Hints:
The chain is an alpha+beta fold. The protein has helices at residues 47-51, 61-67, 75-90, and strands at residues 10-12, 19-21, 25-28, 43-46. It is 29% helix and 15% strand.
Amino acid sequence: MWRARRRERLVTCIACGRELARDRAREYDKYGDRWDREGKTFEHLCKPCDNDLCRHSRAELEALLVEVGAGERSQAEFLSWYLAVVEERYGPLEES
């Protein structure tokens, strides 16, 4: 019996743009629930970029980014809107 040729599926790290084999990458779910797999398409991170991720909760983050126009405004305008909405909802940010 002939062994089937194994083709490695390549993915691109969404953080650094590096292309790597799928089995060498980490799945990233922008909604923070990578265990609920039904109907999802995952993005991927290389291991060094995955290790650099903050593991704090992202509850409501996606909705907030859409609300303040992430990707639709200049960086300065976006940061101004984001900061204003976060301070309005959660109080002033503490300076460290």
